[in-house]
Prior knowledge:
Blueprint: E1 2-6, E2 9-14, E3 25-31, E4 37-40, H1 47-59, E5 67-71, H2 77-80, H3 83-90, E6 94-96, H4 101-104, H5 111-123, H6 128-144, E7 152-153, E8 159-161, E9 166-171, E10 180-184, E11 189-193, H7 218-230, E12 236-239, H8 248-272, H9 278-285, H10 294-310, E13 314-319, E14 322-327
Parallel strand pairs: 4-5, 5-6, 6-7, 11-12
Antiparallel strand pairs: 1-2, 2-3, 3-4, 8-9, 9-10, 10-11, 13-14
The structure holds zinc ion (2 copies).
One zinc ion (ZN) is lined by residues 74, 76, 175, 194.
Amino acid sequence: MTSTLGLGVTRIAVPVPFPEAGGPANVYVIEEEGGGVAMFDAGIGTREGKEALEHGFAKAGLSFGDVRRIFVSHGHLDHYGYARAAQEASGAPVFVHVRDHDKVTGRDRTPKRLDLYAAYLSKLGARPSLLEHVRVHFQDFRRMARPLEQVEALEPGRVLKFKHFSAEVLHLPGHTPGLVCLWDRENQVLFSDDHLLERVSPNPLLDLEGHDEPVHKALVEYIRSARRVRELPVQLVAPGHADPFSGHVEIIDRLLFFYEKRQSRLLELLRQRSPQSPADLAPQIFPNAREHHLYLTLSEVMGNLEVLEAQRRVARSERAGRIVFEAV
Ligand SMILES: [Zn+2]
Ligand SMILES: [Zn+2]
């Protein structure tokens, strides 16, 4: 599906094979000042993704050869998956925030990096049999996104000039460490990718960035970023999935309330029994989750525990190599 947003922007919706994403991924094709177009996000590298993108370009009277610059909002495969192919077809540079470079180049998926994830997840209490699911899940990624070799830094605060508007690069860590949104202050349009979606919460995921333990406290940072966006006078949100919408304040408030409720529930569980590991807590929060969702459920539980820890409502300690928490 292709639709125009005004401002010389065409939105191409690209199907993605995971329903939890919140709908087709959006590629925004933006008219450049000196002719040609820029892309904000690059869809996914599946056959369906390629076809949808080609169809959208053709419908707009364009080909990949018209692409001058490619901006990737964050290092998830439904946003950078087709960037390598678009780069090869156009010779255009690809810009990504430095903290997500290892994701788009595949360096965050080397065997050594996967070992770090396995070690950390087992430190959170995950059984070894479950870790293989995570490894397989991670390796699936390559089928849907060819790693990039040439990536440029997308600096926060930089103002991108297009033919009909300018947009500031906002670094809004949370969903990933290097996520950026584009903010057109004059027209009050926020290109929010996965930082803000209308119907799904954006899953701040556990991210090691090559360390033994995360420096990036995903949900702590996500909440800070969401509060920052809440203060912007946004009229229209052009998201990373599904249709544009307005009313960002209500959506952010609802999301913050949802996380507060989840934190209260974790605190209640820790008051009933302490200490518990994140893996002890995960099935109590997500009783219906399947084994292969371990990475998602542990990310969610750990993210909320880190928020409670920052508020000094829970305390962390290590017992026999495991991280455990207790209510304080
Ligand atoms: Zn994402
Ligand atoms: Zn996405």
